[in-house]
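Observation: inputs received (chain + adenosine-5'-diphosphate).
Thought: call the complex predictor directly.
Action: predict_structure
Action Input:
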Amino acid sequence: MLLQVALPVPLYRVFDYSLPANMSPLPNGASPHIPPIGSRVEVPFGRQTLIGIVVAHIVAADSGVPLNKLKPINKCLDAEPILDASMLKLAQWLARYYHYPLGDVLAVMLPTLVRQGKPLDLLITHWRVLPHASDGDFRANAKKQKQQFDILKLHGERGASEDILLLEGMQRSFLRGLEEKGLIERYIQNKQAPAPFKVATMPLDLNDEQQLAVTAIIAAHEANRYTGFLLNGITGSGKTEVYLQTMQAVLEAGKQVLILVPEIGLTPQTRARFASRFAAHIVLLHSGMNNTHRLQGWQDCRTGHAQIIIGTRSAVLYPFADLGLIVVDEAHDGSYKQQDTLRYHAADVALYRGLQANIPVVLGTATPSLEHLKLVNDGKLIECQLLTRPGNAKPATMQLIDARLQSTHQRTTDDGARYDTGLTDALIGAIRQTLEAGDQVLIFLNRRGYAPVLLCEACGWQADCPRCDAHLTVHYNSQSQYNSYLKCHHCDWQAYIPTTCPDCGSQNLDAKGIGTTRLSENLHAIFANPQTSKELYPIIQIDRDTTRRKDSWENIYQRINQGNPAILVGTQMVAKGHHFPNVTLVCLPNADRGFLSADFRSPEHTAQLMIQVAGRAGRGDKSGRVLIQTLQPDNELLLKLVKDGYLSFARELLQERKMMGLPPHSYAALIRCEGKTLATTTQALKDAIAILPNGHNLAVLGPIDAPMSKKNSRYYVQLLLLGKDRQQLHRVLSQWWQPVLALPSTKYLKLTLDIDPIGW
Ligand code: ADP
Ligand code: ZN
Ligand code: ZN
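Observation:
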């Protein structure tokens, strides 16, 4: 008997190991046996020691390696499998579909501490005082021991986790000492059944559209049948209530529910909404957790202790004891696509897992991606539409402002220079009116910092990043010189703002364009009290610079939710499902620019962003208004979007893609090559093209420079393969990709393969 082991090495194969002649006892003290499939083993690998997962038991005759060359494993780390057959199947599917080594796939799927071989249970060990233990059990001179005992005693009959106790100053040696004396005991929290789930507040009365959706999803759940749903509901149409009422049926059946959200900032908000409806064990999973909490969350999911799991992208790779429903909220969002290592799309993985587990999967969004609309057309997703907002709330009205006709508001700075604020008088008038009516305004500008470019008016020099193919962003603070600097948003390179042009010596340097900081400053100048220049309305900036700190979102929410008139200035962060009930006016001063971009996906993504931002208006009782300021009011795409709405806009784009043979009407793989020079990277991709199998029947585009061809002093060149059908593309890739990695010219370069890329 031999073991086949997947190891975290970038090689497309598994490794055979034998069993040691006399195996040491298992961690739980049981007599040694063969490490089960799905358990961890420690093995020698070259001069290293690695931890891998047993993926198969084979007989010696089936191994390609002669018996005397095989090495035995060092030890077996688990008595039971940590991944069951369905998780291994998921890993194998991911490896096949994304053409990524199985061992590396497993490394992405497992929490760090599991990967490091830590015992699963040790970290969630709880301790409690035994009922018979009393102060009389301590001798007078055992002061320290008594003191440690008291720390635990404070936690009552349920005790506390070892983690917490160590933080509170208890020591492991004393825990063990007290255990030996029979005064305290350890227990594994997960062995306890979760508290029964209860509905804490009354569900709302559904409208007809919501009812249809809930009935359909629950029917799939009750029939134990995989069904993918596209819950296509306009912003504010009550998608969450649909989630809540389907969740209730699934939770009552004793099953778990996984909710994916696009961004870590949304997890607390989502949790609050679910926790107010259900008394259940809710677990949050996101990148902000430390390793111990991640392992704890992983265990909670795996043992079934967690009933509702709210997580970002990677939660879709967790093991679940008994999953009954997956919801992907804002399913169109680009953050569901992992952009390095294993480049998976969480919505696609969610659908696969639904199929695997025979459960419904709900993709909810107001702006479905063209991929998902095509799946509806192909009969692979069932569409449920919510076209109205419940109660009195009306969808916001949209209106274009022609920036060519309207004079743009000028501003004079302290030193007498005049420049454009980028806001037309019409927009400023509408903002003033809204504030005076006591409401809030949201202005969307997808560019943080002060200005995107620093330009010499005399010679045309621009401040560029020395390491990237990009301008440096001006971060300027009129109050503080130390907070004024140039920064590259791609590699974080920083420099002082020069006072004279490095090329011609002119002092005529000018910050061009407007970022959120400058817009906030302009708004302050426009709306402050003209006599005292004191702020009349708070201006709240929401971007990566202002939300970096841990509690900053909470503070921002608090300020907004006081409900006083205010101006919110935000980047695309504000587009993601946030609820600002007092915003009645949304302004998009230049969001339509994306309709002119060279990337064929840009119109789709621009429209999604515009509609999502617009959806922040009028979510309370008052109706909302959206103003789109544009220099191209005749742009057909823009007019279509504003007049006919997102769905007909998207259907037209889909038709266009079909005619042009672009995804989702074809299937793409993007190969990127990264290296120290443009020449070697380009040559490597040329060599790769040369070994494409004959008759591959794919469209080959490239090698061409990547959209950002130089980043952090590295060069990027790419190659795009397009196939008319998926199988054909994957057949070619499975023959071709591994030989490409073995080419001599790719040896010192980094090559990556991106299946179903979302940008190129
Ligand atoms: P979405 O997620 O679709 O943008 P929400 O789920 O946030 O929309 O719902 C918008 C508002 O409508 C919320 O305040 C919600 O409580 C309310 N709502 C949802 N369904 C109903 C209903 N059936 N009756 C009354 N109010 C509802
Ligand atoms: Zn110059
Ligand atoms: Zn840079």
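Thought: report the result.
Final Answer: The pocket of zinc ion (ligand 2) is lined by residues 456, 458-459, 461, 501, 503-504, 506 (CB under 6 Å). The radius of gyration is 30 Å.
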